[in-house]
Amino acid sequence: MLKVAIVGCGKVADQHVQAIGRIPDCVIVGLCDRELLMAKQLGERTDITACFSDLHEMLQMTKPDVVHITTPPQSHFSLTRQCLEFGSHVYLEKPFTITASEAESLIDLAETRGLKITAGHNYLFTLEMREMRRLINAGFLGGRPVHLESYWSYDLGDRSYVAPMLGDRTHWVRQLPGQLFHNIISHGIAKLAEFLDSELTEIAATAHQSEQLSSLGAQEVMDELRVLIRDKNGTTAFFCFSTQVKGLNQLRIYGPAGSITADIITGSVVRNTSRSYKSYLTYFVPPLRSAREHLGNARRNITNFLRRRLYQDFGMKELIERFYDSIRLGKLVPIPYREIILTAKIMDEIFAQIYPAQARGQKSEVSSQRRSPSNFVTV
């Protein structure tokens, strides 16, 4: 039986508890939050009685095999280091760390101690992403990817999140090098990192503030981001984050013989072959093929619904279960460390370009934080 603990008892922790509850042979042995009331409230909702406000005490009392850290990213490095030094494996929520150097340091520490660590990039393991990966491995693209496009949208209508962040300059989101982007875009960047070489030759980022966000205040916060990337093999990628384009969360991969689009919102995978048709068939065959693709997706989604596999946090449950299996069975970690580090490096460069002053200030602040224990707060 794998013993699991959770640090940080905000709303994300509820999702972790639900996902862990779907996995056999594991039990949550402790909850920890700087605000003990938050831990106790989560414990009451989930029938977990061991609640703590001190990480060291929780580790000593419960001796967890795995710790899930769901606090704001400023505390990720110090909390994860404490857990690894204690001897626990770590599931670390996104964004993995503030900087790529922190990510490399934690991964090095985990490997030195014979432990495993993963990032909360759960959208890599949704049903549609698994199907896309299967098609690529089966050779549908006709070769390695030539071009990638990742789109990630965010709805500013969630005022419970946006209002406190915009109204308080000291809010933890506002203190990140990438501000609003930093807390969200790793999901979309991680999808690109899977298919890009680690040696990148070009990253060009541009950002601006939408009229909607401008009307809400916080003039220095940007919410529209576009990024162009090229790796040493010539593979290009485009990343788009938007609060104005609603309901667009997709990954598109183009190869020599075809392309694939995985849509997170609709849970669908659409294939498109790169071929031409004679005369007027060009106007008839491709639309019919597209209609067949969408009909097939509808059938698969109905089947998955009836099999109780179509639920919101399927990707999180799948990632957690694969991570636990890597610990129990000695399998490879579900997300290669190369991809975690590359995601962090791409984000470092993006934020250095769009928030240069804040990125420089964060480097010195992170260095000082490493020399002293960090408190954590609820998300």
What are the main properties of this structure?
single chain, 379 residues, alpha/beta, seven-stranded mixed sheet, six-stranded parallel sheet, 14 helices, 44% helix, globular, disordered C terminus
Walk me through the topology.
Elements: E1 2-7, H1 11-21, E2 26-32, H2 36-46, E3 51-52, H3 55-62, E4 66-69, H4 76-86, E5 89-92, H5 100-112, E6 117-119, H6 127-137, E7 147-153, H7 159-167, H8 179-182, H9 186-193, E8 200-208, H10 211-216, E9 224-231, E10 236-242, E11 250-254, E12 258-263, E13 268-273, H11 281-306, H12 314-328, H13 337-354, H14 356-370
Parallel strand pairs: 1-2, 1-4, 2-3, 4-5, 5-6, 7-10
Antiparallel strand pairs: 7-11, 8-9, 9-10, 11-12, 12-13
Helix pairs in contact: 1-12, 4-5, 5-13, 9-13, 13-14
For the biggest β-sheet, the strand order reads: 8-9-10-7-11-12-13
Give the class from helix and strand content and strand pairing. Answer: alpha/beta
Please estimate the helix content.
40-55%
Tell me the total number of β-strands: 13
Radius of gyration: 21 Å
So what's the overall shape? globular
Total of DSSP H or I helical runs spanning 4+ residues: 14
- How widely separated are the two ends? 28 Å
